[in-house]
């Protein structure tokens, strides 16, 4: 699914790029870490800790305090979901937090088995972490809070909400704690570290931007859009909690922030990126359904497709190659496998 994008991206990047970032970009990695990455994961840790505390007090799926805490925590995850490297990837933490897309419906099947078996021992933290990733994280919790068929028996479903919320909080806290040391590795590249040069650390940030753009374009938008003749609104992310369009908006917010940081301050490219992202935000605001159900209508489909086209054609295909050139990304760089 991802390889065509990787191939296209390699072709888009100019063959004349140099291997090192320009000297004036020396402070770039520090800036992105301090203003974008570290605050985002700190917010995630705090929001998920609050979610776990609220769930421990009242785990009823119709409790508004719980649903609001879940929404704030999910917001915080979406804001850092493009940063899928370093601590997020240790022990598959990111997948445990966010197993989606789920084309085979593994999550509801896994939850249904747990609810049928009602094994209390599996709710202990050390046992819960051994469960299938499909039964953990934000998307599993969405089913438990918003899908009536997965809310019985009520006592065990409630206990699953508590165990799942606590698991999300532990994962988020671990990622946040590990970023302190990992940030140092990005700030001071060396021969024995994951980044041997500042150019490699910069390349990691550019890769996060590119893959974030792709995920929002192909998954958050592409899956529910399907084709004009056959839209698939039920494939929308987090549609049960009416969060589909919100996730697109949050992701684009964060991708814009990262893109503008990576572009040279005051450059023409930075200005072009700002205009392109603003147009994309306006297109998102025009979508008139929070769960993307409107893509089932011709007009609604076209509204959402404008967002997809902005992200793919205008931002990714037109503006990412010159940004890569500005950053000194090597020719033939593959955003998806780290080449």
TrEMBL record:
Q: Which domain of life is it from?
A: Bacteria
UniProt key word GTP-binding: no
Q: Which residues form the Imelysin-like domain?
A: 37-296
| UniProt-annotated stretches for the region Disordered | 224-243
What the entry lists under InterPro entries is as follows: Imelysin-like, Imelysin-like_IPPA, Imelysin_sf
Secretion signal, residue range per the UniProt entry:
1-19
Compositionally biased residues, Basic and acidic residues: 229-240
Q: Name one Pfam family in it.
A: Peptidase_M75
Q: Where in the cell is it found?
A: Cell envelope
Q: What is this protein called?
A: Putative periplasmic lipoprotein
Q: Which organism is it from?
A: Thalassovita mediterranea
Q: What broad taxonomic lineage does this protein's source fall under?
A: Bacteria, Pseudomonadati, Pseudomonadota, Alphaproteobacteria, Rhodobacterales
């Amino acid at each position: 699914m991802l390889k065509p994008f990787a191939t296209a991206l390699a072709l888009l990047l100019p063959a004349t790029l140099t291997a090192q970032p320009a000297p004036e970009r020396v402070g770039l990695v520090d800036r992105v870490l301090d203003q974008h990455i570290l605050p985002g994961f700190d917010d995630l840790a705090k929001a998920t800790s609050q979610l776990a505390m609220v769930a421990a007090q009242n785990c009823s799926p119709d409790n508004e305090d719980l649903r609001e805490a879940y929404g704030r925590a999910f917001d915080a995850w979406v804001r850092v979901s493009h940063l899928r490297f370093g601590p997020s990837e240790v022990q598959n933490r990111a997948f445990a937090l966010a197993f989606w897309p789920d084309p085979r419906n593994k999550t509801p099947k896994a939850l249904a088995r747990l609810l049928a078996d009602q094994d209390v021992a599996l709710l202990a933290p050390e046992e819960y972490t051994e469960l299938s990733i499909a039964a953990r994280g934000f998307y599993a919790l969405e089913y438990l809070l918003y899908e009536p068929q997965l809310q019985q028996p009520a006592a065990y479903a409630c206990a699953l909400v508590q165990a799942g919320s606590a698991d999300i909080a532990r994962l988020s806290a671990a990622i946040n704690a590990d970023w302190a040391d990992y940030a140092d590795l990005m700030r001071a590249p060396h021969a024995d570290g994951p980044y041997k040069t500042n150019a490699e650390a910069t390349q990691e940030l550019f890769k996060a931007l590119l893959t974030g753009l792709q995920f929002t374009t192909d998954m958050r938008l592409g899956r529910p859009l399907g084709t004009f003749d056959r839209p698939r609104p039920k494939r929308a992310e987090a549609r049960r909690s009416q969060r589909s369009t919100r996730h697109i908006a949050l992701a684009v917010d964060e991708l814009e922030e990262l893109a503008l940081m990576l572009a040279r301050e005051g450059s023409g490219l930075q200005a072009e990126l700002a205009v392109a992202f603003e147009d994309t935000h306006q297109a998102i605001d025009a979508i008139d359904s929070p769960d993307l159900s409107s893509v089932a209508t011709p007009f609604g489909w076209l509204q959402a497709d404008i967002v997809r086209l902005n992200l793919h054609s205008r931002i990714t295909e037109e503006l990412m190659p010159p940004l890569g050139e500005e950053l000194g990304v090597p020719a033939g760089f593959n955003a998806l496998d780290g080449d």
